[in-house]
Amino acid sequence: MIFNKFQRHFIFLVVRLLGYVKIFFPFPHSLCWLLVELNQLFYKGHVMKDIFQHINELFERGEDFALATIFSRSGSAPRTSGARMVIHANGSIYGTIGGGLLEAQVLQSAPQIFSERGALIREFSLSGKDASQTDMICGGNVAVLIEFIDAGNNTYRKIFQEALAAINEHRRVWLLTELPPSGELTQIKRRCLLKQDGSTVGKLSCTVEVGLGSPIGLFGDEVEEVTEQPDITSSRSPVVVRLVSGERLLVEPICDYGTVYIFGAGHVSQKLASLCSLVGFETVVIDDRAEYANRERFPSADRILVVQSYRHCFEDLPIDEDSYLVIVTRGHLNDSEVLERAMRTRAGYIGMIGSKRKRDEVYKHLVKTAGFRMEDFSRVNSPIGIPIGAESPEEIAVSIVAELIQARAKRK
Asked: How far apart are CA 81 and CA 73, in angstroms?
């Protein structure tokens, strides 16, 4: 099943509706977190791509616009950090930063942004009924960067073109923007897109290096303070970096949200592939049967690979820490072959379907035949999925994707 734009926005509106329900039936904090995380997943998985596609279309048409971006981190707001909304010259919008009062107040600043062709940071504190009118649902403090974008700026055009290409190709890049002083309307002087190999589109006057393990690696000796998040390069939310010179840079990850490799193309895999795509994973389906692994059965998959046998299925697969391996083949022997090879990779997640009895049999077999120890299998999630009493392929797929989301969130 493919979720088209209408279906995605319908689900999005359901989450927003729950915000209004909260006025009369307060939610516990854990449910607030879940609802906001669901909203953010829909945004990150699809709306981000839609926004960047729309921005590129505006550049092609030569239409100036304003861009509003949330980058705050308090209350429930961190779950919506990175949300963007395009404001057109006629006052219409594309995308959302939360709806309700928040968007209305941001739109009040739009005429000034267009007339002075500048940028402004506005800060908001939302709680109670104000928060219920936004996608934050449970309130929080947010800061929004509102900036004029000149469609004739060729550097910006190239930056947003490359950002969209990175999203389409599941490459990790960072958008770096100099922030104006809070409350002051001024022009943004510096912006660039930083690629993982250290090359950039656009320029910053500070030294940009790529020792991608720490903020110091990104900005050399010019970093004085990193707010919001200690590890820039693993964060999926915007990070503010304060330089020794006193300027602040907004570092926004336009990133790869991980690749799910689904080994097996059965009924569960069909449902699983659609859901994985929906929440932003690149999805690869692998099977040794062409009549199962095909575009007709997996229209939403990014890639479909038909292999000669599972014994050779890992050849040429770029497995790394951002890879999620889901083993749902048609039998124990195939599961065992895939798991043996999965255990020798750096995958960030390995999960295998089946009962505990079946799992233990596979483990014992690999201990005898492949040289593993029982403790080696502690990294394997099996039985796969969050225990919700799932029975149907659809329910099992939901439980697996929930566990994948959880594993990905822990890596933020």
From this structure: 7
Pairing of the two strands 84-88 and 65-70? antiparallel
**180-185: which pairs have CB atoms within 8 A and are 24 or more residues apart?**
180/118, 180/119, 180/120, 180/121, 180/145, 181/121, 182/121, 182/123, 182/143, 183/120, 183/121, 183/122, 184/120, 185/112, 185/113, 185/116, 185/118, 185/119, 185/120
Strands of 93-95's sheet, edge to edge?
93-95, 84-88, 65-70, 140-149, 119-126
User: What is the rounded CA–CA span in Å between residue 261 and residue 214?
Assistant: 29
Domains of the chain: 1-151 (no CATH), 153-256 (no CATH), 259-410 (3.40.50.720)
Q: What is the pLDDT of residues 167-181, one digit of tens each?
A: 888 788 889 998 988
Task: Give pTM, 2 decimals.
Answer: 0.68
Which residue did the predictor score with more confidence, 122 or 225? Answer: 122
Span 5-44, pLDDT tens digits: 444 454 444 444 444 444 444 444 444 444 444 444 444 4
Is the pLDDT confidence value at 72 over 60? yes
Q: Which of 196, 317, 179, 313 is nearest to 259 (CA)?
A: 317
Cβ atoms of 172 and 185 within 8 Å: the answer is no
Q: What is the reported pLDDT for 71?
A: 82
